[in-house]
Specification:
The protein has nine helices and 16 strands. Bound molecules: zinc ion. Zinc ion binds next to loops.
């Protein structure tokens, strides 16, 4: 399976920056996990193919590109965008984003081919299918209702925590998997901002280290969702942890799991 973190933010030369503001992971150019930069960084091919968007939680950096993506495709799409999320997250999107004030309620609108957006609620810890993927959502420990995912295409499986502080149930489920090809875990703040990380329910490198001690799988582990202002500090502290299979996920790079 091919996995890519889409660029969201650009340096002064217009190149993708490691300082990412938004989160959007694309699998096989077909399915998006979170939609932070979905409208901004997808290729023409990805725009043609991505009709399924799986949302972890409704924080802006994870959904910012969703209304604009649907807007871009509004007149031309022949299959509706399927938004997969928990009922709680769908409620937040409808109340706070697609509410006619911030943006149109696309779930009530049609183009010449039919409806343009549909919600597909999923349940916690109950496997569901999106295209060729089997996905399980596990609650994580964030400031708002949020889930991590275990994702399999039948041949390989990866785990993605999304935004979270310390977790136990997620690791229990991960440890119960036969074999994982990769784990993606957040680490938003550097150790110096431990109290901010704690109050906003995020991880620091030090806490990440104690989290990884709960892990019984051995596979590459990639750090994601670092706050853009602290990339240098967090990267340095991650290296200092000296964990051989731990690295930062590279922006835009296509990983094969
Ligand atoms: Zn968040």
């Amino acid at each position: 399976m091919r996995f890519q973190l889409l660029p969201s933010t650009f340096d002064e030369n217009g190149r993708a920056s490691v300082r990412q503001h938004l989160a959007c992971f694309v699998v096989d150019d077909l399915i998006a996990f979170d939609a932070g930069s979905l409208a901004f960084s997808t290729t023409a091919e990805q725009k043609k193919q991505i009709r399924d968007v799986v949302i972890s939680h409704a924080h802006l950096d994870h959904i910012a590109g969703l209304p604009l993506y649907i807007d871009d495709l509004f007149a031309t799409i022949k299959r509706p965008i399927q938004v997969h999320a928990t009922k709680e997250v769908i409620g937040i999107l409808e109340r706070d984003i697609f509410n006619w004030s911030v943006y149109p309620r696309f779930s009530e609108l049609r183009n010449d081919y039919g409806v343009v957006m549909e919600y597909r609620p999923f349940e916690i810890e109950k496997e569901f299918a999106v295209k060729h993927l089997k996905i399980k959502a596990i609650p994580v420990n964030h400031k708002v209702p949020s889930v991590g995912f275990i994702v399999s295409d039948g041949r390989s499986t990866f785990a993605l925590t999304n935004d979270t502080a310390e977790i136990d149930r997620f690791w229990d489920v991960v440890n119960g998997e036969k074999h994982l090809s990769a784990i993606l875990i957040e680490c938003a703040f550097p150790d110096e901002l431990g109290s901010l990380a704690c109050s906003s329910h995020h991880l620091t490198p030090k806490v990440l280290q104690t989290e990884l001690a709960k892990l019984k799988q051995h596979c590459p582990i990639y750090v994601v969702n670092i706050k853009p202002m602290y990339v240098d500090q967090v990267s340095r502290q991650i290296i200092e942890l000296n964990i051989e299979n731990l690295a930062l996920l590279k922006v835009g790079k296509i990983y094969e799991f």
